[in-house]
Amino acid sequence: MRALHDISKTLTLLFALTLAILISSMITNLKWVLVMSIAALTYGLLSPIVAARRLYFLASVSPHSALLAAVLAIPLARIFSIANENIWAIVLGLFLTYIVGYMIHKGIDTDTATATFVAFTASASVMAIYYVLTSFPLEASIWAIIVGDPLLAGWNDVAYASIVMIFTALTVLLTCREQICLGIDRDYVKLAGVRVKIYDWIMFTLLGLTTVALIRIVGFVLEHVLILLPAAIATTASKSAKDAMYLSTLSSFVASILGLHLAIALGLAPAGTTGLSLLTLYIFALLGRMWK
Amino acid sequence: MNFKAYIVFIILTSLMITFLAIGIVDALNDSLYIVVTFPNLIYDVKPFLCSGDYIVSIAPVGVDPHEYQLTPTNVEDLRKADIIVSTGHAPFEKNIEEMVGKEIKGELLIIPKIPNIRILANPATGKPNYHMPIYDPNNYILFIKYISEVLAHKRPECANHYYERARDIVDKISSLINHTPKVNVVAVADTPTTQYAVSWIGIRIKYLMIKEHEVPVSPKDVESIVEAMKNGEIKLAIINNPPTARASESLKELAEKYSVPILYVPSPIGEGSILNKLTIISNQISNLSMEIPEETALLEQSQSTVGKNVVTALLPLLLLIVVGLFIFTKARGV
């Protein structure tokens, strides 16, 4: 009976999301709606896992490695024509994220490892940006990576982001139970015979992949907000882990779509209005918590 | 011992004589050391040069000068410069302006400050558009005349040479202006850098995909471009060539979708002189002028009314509040 209730809840949510996408695409450009929805759903699903694993600091640092990877991918793709910028960015981004993972695995405190990592990526990003800006052609727009360029995304970008979203959704849905348990009591999960290292690796891969793959669409600045705030809203206003997952996805999606429509109406950058919409929802959650 | 002392004495004396000779030759040499801030300016200034004159660019070929930062080698070049030609709008050009009179002794020639140069207003921001005003052939003539004056003043023995070369270029530009067919149309462009390249033909850029360098595209702008293409207000799309930037690609896609003719404008900071680039534009416009429907009066503006904007902004705000209240009640129940 409970399982049936969960399925019907998920189906209702999916139906509502599809309906919202359809209505939005009738009002505005379908490509924009899809790009914004895909980014929102990807981060909306990932965010509660970040919260459950208490990896807020690492998650907020991931966009730094994504920025470095995306910038370094520009010269690498031009020098070695074996892969395009997206592939190079993903390879580099995952490599950088695995370095932190390895440091944590070797017993270094998570916050210390992350702080060392951000010191390296931030410094290296400055050098890489200067190198690319002074040595590579004009089309290499660093600003687009920093503030995001969702409205100029092509259909190729939509397909690429969709693949990333499907991969993230499947991985999160199949491993969320274990990830949540790992966040609550890691030792208990270890004793239960679960191969913890694999779940750690999955977590780092998801963080590395989603931040690098969507950085051009969402932008370095907004990635921080989209990874952290949906979970903050969900954990403030939910009673259970499942509830948190639904609420995180819903708030992320609503903020992105309404952010896009607000941007159209007011002539503003959608990345900014999405961030403010998400913040508004978080303030509502905080007020609810205060006045209960 | 004495023999060694003689050898050392001979080496030192020859070195001193060599250095002195170099110094004297340098002092007697009147050739000019010209520094241009953008690499494309080399193609416009080089045809003037008299024998022995040397020209160098601050920003290297292929990089975006808007993001460029001065290197120690650049500062060394600027110290040696007799004349510095600047477009006066990139951040590193502002740094050069601050250094003039202190570290830099050469004469700084800022293009927008040349007397009578016409600076257009950016159609999207209303602010002055400083992106290569010499792409306008009338401004280019002023620039050519002005720079020939400055060069002649700095090196009087080559004055005739500088003036003759300037006359040649001015004649070619004037002939190009006369022979290019003029149109009277509203256009959309990918970036404001194309404005000077086409305004002299009668093309009025009213819409821009990117309002200003590195400013993100806003959905409202794209929607108004689509609307103007649909209702036939936009008769021409102006795209930087090659159309590698994402904004250029998007505009090309839109123009093809709504069958709007495309005019490809060579990048103002790409290789080649302004004269060559204007010739390319002139040839294209001669072919395109048959395709572009003329208009005598401006169509009514298709911009949304303020009322419609308020409604479209209120709806998402209301929905956001509804979802916010849902989260509020859920948080109260926790």
Brief synopsis:
The complex is a heterodimer of chains A (292) and B (334). By secondary structure, chain A is mostly helical.
Verbal overview:
- The complex is a heterodimer of chains A (292) and B (334).
- Chain A is mostly helical and 292 residues long.
- In chain A, 85% of the residues lie in helices and 0% in strands.
- Chain A has 13 helices and no strands.
- Chain A has helices at residues 2-27, 30-52, 56-79, 85-105, 110-135, 142-147, 155-184, 186-191, 196-213, 215-218, 220-237, 241-266, 270-290.
- Chain A is globular, with a radius of gyration of 19 Å.
- Chain B is an alpha/beta fold.
- Chain B has a four-stranded parallel beta sheet, with helices on both faces. In chain B, strands 6-5-7-8 form a four-stranded parallel beta sheet.
- In chain B, helix 4 links the parallel strand 3 (83-86) and strand 4.
- The interface between A and B is large, with 57 and 44 residues.
Q: What would the average pLDDT of chain A be, to the nearest integer?
A: 85
- Write the H/E string of chain A, N to C: HHHHHHHHHHHHH
Per CATH, the architecture of chain A is Orthogonal Bundle
Secondary-structure element string of chain B: HEHEHEHEHHEHEHEHEHH
Predict the CATH topology of the largest domain in chain B: Rossmann fold
Overall tally of domains of chain B: 2
In DSSP terms (H or I, runs of 4 or more residues), the helix count of chain A works out at 13
Strand residues, percent of chain B:
5-15%
Radius of gyration of chain A: 19 Å
CATH architecture field of the largest domain in chain B: 3-Layer(aba) Sandwich
Keywords:
heterodimer, A: 292 residues, mainly alpha, ABC transporter involved in vitamin B12 uptake, BtuC, 85% helix, B: 334 residues, alpha/beta, Rossmann fold, 2 domains, four-stranded parallel beta sheet, flat
